[in-house]
């Protein structure tokens, strides 16, 4: 039996997708119980609540499970409809935020999908990656930040900020793991300053895992995958 | 200069993604101007309005461009907020519809991404494909259609119906092109009857392209890709 208004988040501490759900709950000021899952040995609850992808995060609200991080963000914003809002009110701006969030997600996936091959992106993948990053730097700024201010300077961080931060907030980890300079203030001044400003917001800072520990687990995962491949 | 309340859809007649936008506009009863694009020679307008993906559909509403079919569906539902609604009102049901729409989109992509390799899915891809189809058959029915009725029997087709139909509405085309029995009433009675019921809704029927012509263009595309690969 679930009690009234119970909010539980099943997660794994190093997952950028779980970080999204944590950030959204923190920013909205929603109390929740966090349940750490052992991904090698998932609980019955995760298997039962997310039978399709069997992945975290799973948000369980009053016993009802919601899976997939981007869908969880929309659910949180629609269910707790008091401000701060994660998405803007205007439908056109909402579309733009959704568009760029999906774009950043795709860009992030270029690198993260290489993990099952030992975390070694091919030359073509890197070319695609830089092309998408260059475009994000130029066009998100031009379309959404024409006055140079990150959106959350006027309000709390929202949907797009959360997705950006889940990707670039731990860029030092990515640099260390993949062995290349990922975002530098010289090459991506806009993305770098946006990410830095986000990292200083208390609700964001408190939820961010330790870089050193994330690097450790990434190396362990790479080793596991390489062993699995023989 | 755009006049007040001008709605233009830039598309390509055989695209399932363009079909989604057409269906949404038809179902909502929104008058729009349809502009067919030559994909080999895209208009300045598409390049200017969707500089990132340079793809159709692009919806241009009062001069403002919206790209990506799923985002266009949300935009249409939020902008023209009178019924019929494409997404349910309840946040939990909205999350479920979004989840299954994204799932069907992923399933569809397993086959469609093989097009650049000449439209020949590998054994592993086919295995993944059938697994996802089996799960869709079982779980969408269990989670959303427990009484056996497709959602649109109570209202007009919505977001999830549109995404389902863009994938399976032309399944005879897919069967002919890929050379395997795709959805049969024996194997997928629920998905097959849902798709059939949708195909009989006038707003859907009117927007569906001719199977014969779609097969022609798919074969032409396969030939082009194979030639490009040398």
From TrEMBL, chains A, B:
SUPFAM superfamilies: GST C-terminal domain-like (SSF47616), Thioredoxin-like (SSF52833). InterPro entries: Glutathione-S-Trfase_C-like, Glutathione-S-Trfase_C_sf, Glutathione_S-Trfase, Glutathione_S-Trfase_N, GST_C_Tau, Omega/Tau-like, Thioredoxin-like_sf. Pfam families: GST_N (PF02798). GO terms for cellular component: cytosol. It is found in: Cytoplasm, Cytosol. Residues 5-84 form the GST N-terminal domain. One of its GO terms (molecular function) is glutathione transferase activity. Its main location: cytoplasm. It comes from the Eukaryota. One of its GO terms (biological process) is glutathione metabolic process. The keyword Cytoplasm applies. Its EC number is 2.5.1.18. It catalyses: RX + glutathione = an S-substituted glutathione + a halide anion + H(+). Residues 90-225 form the GST C-terminal domain. The keyword Transferase applies. Keywords: Cytoplasm, Transferase. Belongs to the GST superfamily. Tau family. Is involved in the conjugation of reduced glutathione to a wide number of exogenous and endogenous hydrophobic electrophiles. This is Glutathione S-transferase. The lineage of its organism: Eukaryota, Viridiplantae, Streptophyta, Embryophyta, Tracheophyta.
């Amino acid at each position: 039996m679930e009690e009234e208004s119970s909010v539980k988040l099943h997660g794994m501490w190093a997952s950028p997708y779980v970080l999204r759900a944590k950030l959204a709950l923190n920013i909205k000021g929603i109390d929740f119980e966090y349940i750490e899952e052992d991904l090698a040995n998932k609980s019955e609850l995760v298997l039962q609540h997310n039978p399709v992808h069997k992945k975290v995060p799973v948000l369980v609200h009053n016993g009802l499970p919601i899976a997939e991080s981007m869908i969880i963000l929309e659910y949180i914003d629609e269910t707790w409809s008091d401000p701060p809002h994660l998405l803007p009110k205007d439908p056109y701006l909402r579309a733009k935020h959704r568009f760029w969030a999906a774009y950043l997600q795709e860009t992030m996936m270029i690198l993260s999908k290489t993990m099952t091959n030992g975390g070694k992106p091919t030359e073509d993948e890197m070319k695609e990656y830089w092309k998408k990053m260059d475009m994000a730097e130029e066009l998100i700024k031009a379309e959404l930040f024409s006055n140079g201010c990150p959106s959350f300077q006027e309000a709390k961080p929202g949907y797009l900020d959360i997705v950006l931060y889940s990707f670039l907030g731990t860029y030092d980890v990515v640099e260390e793991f993949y062995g290349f300079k990922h975002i530098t203030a010289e090459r991506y001044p806009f993305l770098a300053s946006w990410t830095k400003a986000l990292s200083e917001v208390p609700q964001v800072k408190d939820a961010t895992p330790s870089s050193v520990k994330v690097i450790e687990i990434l190396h362990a995962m790479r080793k596991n995958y390489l062993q699995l491949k023989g």
